[in-house]
Design goal:
9 helices, mainly alpha, about 0% strand
Amino acid sequence: MTTRRDRLREATVREISETARRILVEHGPEAVTLRAIAREMGMTAPALYRYYDSHSELLRHVVGDIYTELTAELQSAIAKVPHDDMSGKFLSVARQFRSWSLGHPREYGLLFGAPIRGLAPDEQADFAEECAQQFGWTFMSLFLELWQKKPFPVPPDDEIDPGLLPQLRRYRAERLGVALPLGVIQQFLKCWVRLQGSVSLEAFGHLSFALDDAAPMFELMLQEIAPPLGLTYAPPAKE
């Protein structure tokens, strides 16, 4: 049973995280300082050290919270699709990822942009890393489900680029812990590079030189990704 003191501490930690995120969204990552957070909360900066050991730890907690929010949005999108509709699941989660990213550009930049000063990862897995892994597993679990239900063509190991082969083996052993053919992992990474690359270019404004509306280009990318996975592309429902 939690005590009143525990509940007050949890509420303060939550308020600190929410305040840090609000400053991030309104003023950018460089403005997220302990002094700025304390000023908005009516506290002193040293008092924040009762809740976080460092500025880096606070930022990484904010990162973890944002990953958790994004993961929940993706899981919700998947849950709205019939269980056996793998094509629908893939398209839904990809579109939701883009939608969230464009709706939260500051948060997206914190998760996927250039490394931010003061946000160096700890040597051991921490809250942010665990939340990031849960986010990544949202996509990998779909690949696993698809591979188990309807395997798609993948190259044998001897046809994979020798420069990629040891890297794929290392990724499988150290990060996945799942006995998947290397060709499946290569296909997963190929799809992720295209999906996240497309979203990043749009979220960071790097497509505006040519496109006022990048949605059709995003759909074209999904249309090209689907067939190699044995999936059927369908355009998004009109609102």
